[in-house]
Amino acid sequence: MSMPTLPYRGTTLAATLAGSALLATIAAPGASAHNVLIDSSPEDGATVDTMPDEVELVFNEEVLEGGNAITVVGPDGNTDYAEGENVRLDGTSAAVDIAPLEEAGAYTVDYRIVSADGHPIEESISFTLAAEALDDTDAAEEAQEEADTGGEETQATNEEDEDTDGETAADTNPLAGNTWLGAAAALLAIGVIVILVVRAVRHTGSGNSEDS
């Protein structure tokens, strides 16, 4: 009497197993959906001959706020060139500014970012700084120093020219700096003329008195 129920039980068991497998397949991607690094600047393993001013990491999904960190450690294994405490986030990218690198060699970028699923991941990449990058930086600094020095010398020359022009103008017009002397001389001349006129008038008056 119990034999007819076996096919039903077998069908139920098969359906249950199939449903469990389907659920496991659907849930598996969600459980392992950590962000994946798909690009970076500098690129992982690359040798760069231009001094980078930042490190940018690009992932396949958005990077969430909270607990993100990026360090850039130099060949000495101790110096961290990353600047600032906060990582800049822009959708799927995370970036940090770096100070000028001081020596050629291998640099390690260690990062900790919060994945789109809320779980943090910690990984690292590396790049090599070529000696040419340091040479270019030194040349640029020297050129900037020369430009600054040239500007200071030009300013000093212009100031000297202005002083010389002022002195030349004063020398060309001797009375420009001695106006009061000119005024005193004019007053003196007028005084002499007045005295002479007064004497002449008195002399004329005296002559007329004697004649009468």
TrEMBL record:
Residues 34-129 form the CopC domain. The chain crosses the membrane at residues 180-201. It is found in: Cell envelope. Gene3D superfamilies: 2.60.40.1220. It comes from the Bacteria. Residues 136-151, 158-168 have a biased composition (Acidic residues). Keywords: Copper, Membrane, Metal-binding, Signal, Transmembrane, Transmembrane helix. Residues 1-33 form the signal peptide. Pfam families: CopC. Residues 136-173 are annotated as: Disordered. InterPro entries: CopC/D, CopC_dom, Cu-Rt/internalin_Ig-like, Ig_E-set. This is Copper resistance protein CopC. It comes from Lipingzhangella rawalii.
